[in-house]
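Lay summary. Proteins are chains of building blocks that fold into shapes, and those shapes determine what they do. In this project we predict the shape from the chain. Here is one chain we studied, written as its sequence of building blocks.
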Amino acid sequence: MTTGRPARRITQRDIARLAGVSQPTVSLVLNGRTDADIRIPQETRERVLRVIREHGYVPDPVARRLAARNNRILGVFTYESVFPSDTSDFYHPFLVGIEEAAEGVGCDLLLLTSAAVTGGRRRIFEGDNRLRVADGCLLLGRSLDRDDLRRMVADAYPFVTVGRRDDAGGPVPYVGADYAAAVGELVRLAVAHGHRRVAYLGVPADVESSADRRRGFLEATEAAADAGVVVALDELSPGREPDELLTTLLAADATVVLVEHFATAVGLVAAAQRRGLAVPADLSVVTLGDPTTPVPTDVDFTGFRIPREEMGRQAVALLTGLLEGAEEGIQRLLPCELVEGTTLAPPRTP
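And here is the predicted shape, written in a compact code that computers can read:
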């Protein structure tokens, strides 16, 4: 499941830095602009072209076509605040990937932050809607408003969600993480270690990412039933105290637990240590993704990482494709990266 990170593509910003000019100057040279009101000294033009040749820079054809027909502005709308907040550590890699890819195709980013807040969340179509200032828009957030998605699909406005979303009156373009496959792989790994009583602690499956994780768990444990694997506990209760959850897990004779909420996993390990239990010998604890808020811990959890930067990059690629009229491959799931960690081991023999 581990995937190699693609080599970083040289960008116009790199060319500008190496040639000692601005990025707009590089863009003008690449586009062959010779307008009377745009004066680029011949020596500067030749220096830019020399750096381009030396470093093998190839302009992105999509970017060239976008430059000819659009404003080259991509909107970024976040349903939760990301600057600044405790979730910034979680959202930051998405934004890094988005910025890198947007730069690669010569587009600017417009962070849309003025949307009205209704019920504690931003709403796209409440008040002054500025989406159409941008050529298209990227949507981020754990929970996206279904009415917003339906309206955007109906209006045929170019947009891409970062994260899988169910259809909303039509297919929703997205780049998501394949949580179901990642959780299934962790279940199979636990079974290979000898675990037969497997538990799951999730959050209410009211969003696609949580539903996908639980579906992966149930499908994998059902497939392993012939090997004697049973679901010792399947609970969606992030609000319960770790000590209470640990008592419930021990009463169910679970030997391994897969935990969606990272802070819950940290709390379980601390609760086990207070009772003199060893993780993973007495109870293996597996996490299902990166923490959404900072949680101090020295524990090297077994689990998986979400390909957040790559999701951001591919979301930009998908959006620029939609702006070019692409109709195929508008829904993508990327593999997660397995993290071996130290919190999964064979169960202690009686």
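What the prediction tells us: The chain has a mean pLDDT of 86.
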